[in-house]
Amino acid sequence: MKVIIVGGVAGGASCATRLRRLSEEAEIVLFERGENVSYANCGLPYYLGGVIKEESALTVASPALLKNRFRIDVRVRSEVIAIDRDAHTVTVRTPEGEYTESYDKLVLTPGASPKTFGIAGEGVFTLRDVKDTLAIDRYLKEKGTQEVLVAGGGFIGVEMAENLTHRGLKVTLAEFAPQIMPPFDPEMALLLADALVKGGVCVKTNTGVKAVEKAGEGLKVTFTDGSEAQTGAVVLALGVAPETALAKSCGLQIAANGGIAVDERGCTSDADIFAAGDAVTVIGANGKEALVPLAGPANRQGRSVAQNLLGGSESNGRKVLGSSVVRAFSTVGASVGQNEKQLKKEGTPYRKIYTFPLSHAGYYPGGTSLTMKLLYDGEGRILGAQAVGTEYVEKQMDVIATVMKLGGTVHDLAELELCYAPPFNAAKSPVNMLGFVAENELSGLSPMMTPDELTEDTYILDVRNPGELEAAGKFPNAVNIPLDVLRDHLSELPKDRPISVACMVGLRGYIATRILRQNGFDAIDLSGGYRAYALMKRAGLVTR
């Protein structure tokens, strides 16, 4: 069997090497239009920031290694420009000219290309491959650039802002949307924006880049709000679009969302053509078709396609939860599944809770606070989760992602047995605590509301100590009765209306809610307490 793979990096290289491990007889030809067939594209910003110091470290596997170790015929600077499905051939363009190559099976892994919205010119860059990285590095050095504008606040935008700051440059990050980092909800994304600002980045939201033009030795940027700014270089991180031109030109089916349509096996509408990676349509966390351009799913898809070329039926990488993590200086954000914005847009019923656990046992020095958000339905099925903090953040999301992948619920979070020692975790881990809180809410043991549900008429009982109110802030028009004396003041509380019970982060509010409900009050715990309230108010989600 002769297999042609179009495109390297995650999906293509994974497919090629897996196919060789499965079959010594297969003839494998891998075409890559660039100069690097397998490189660490997720590491490119860190090379520009000086964290990865050697260019060679960006190369995962060279053509020579793939040839010598795996007997794969790798042809770089070779772009496949046409597919003849009837003749089972591809047309290849090289610097020396064009030629055709036959195949028995064809694998498309073209990836996704950066969006530019027509913005281009000297000093304007996108970041997709090693060539782009080296071009940015060379320009910054040759021009002596001191100031850079990063357009777009997604993963690449945030990573570029951090790393260019590490490089010693003055960085502005401009995002057209009201928040950075779309996978997160506004109040969680706000914490990442705070971290960027603290690290020295100027963050502008609700501010897209409309045009860039040459101005003297630098560039003039015109924003969508009409304002202007001067900078030395612009890096466009405006998202990506699946590269489907080749698939379209040969008549393969394209999904409604613009990706290459594939079945569970990664097979396209042509039985002899498979596809994997950022260009294909996957099944997202909501069970619907989606585009999720992440390295993990691409690697798994390539691996599965290799198996399926030989008659297998693997679907690894087809269903994608979107597990992801980003760092903004010392702050880390991680998420999995759907966010609240998506659930609202779909009209999907959901519940949510906030917790603020320490990263490890409270009595062990050095613990830091995590901000965690869990979304789930009335049956306890986990819909999504987000966390931001400085330590062990991605660990929490990895655990939740695993439970979601295996079809678990909030009850499974409560029952998980996780590693514990004081420097690493709490005996009741942050993930356990999310499960406990959700179970209490679902069972009716502790009904809950969130700060965005507060109205001017809501009766708020704050059970913090008076000194905390002065130090941290107060709820407007709240009644303050400290938890430890609550039982002595029950007669002062109304029984003819609901009472929203609040503390700093939720624990004392839960205890007070249980006291009140057992004494005949309609008490409702305010999830996340004052910390969630203050955060959501800053994000514009709370009106009271």
Please explain how this structure is put together.
This protein folds into 4 domains: 2-111 and 241-309, FAD/NAD(P)-binding domain, CATH 3.50.50.60; 116-238, FAD/NAD(P)-binding domain; 330-443, FAD/NAD(P)-binding domain (3-Layer(bba) Sandwich); 448-538, Rhodanese-like domain (Oxidized Rhodanese, domain 1). The protein is of the alpha/beta class and 544 residues long. It starts with a strand and ends in a 6-residue tail after the last helix. The chain contains 15 helices and 32 strands. It is globular and about 90 Å long. Helix 1 packs parallel to helix 8 (295-309) and helix 6 (186-198) crosses helix 15 (529-538). The model has no long low-confidence stretch (mean pLDDT 96). The longest helix is centred in the middle third of the chain and has 15 residues, at 295-309.
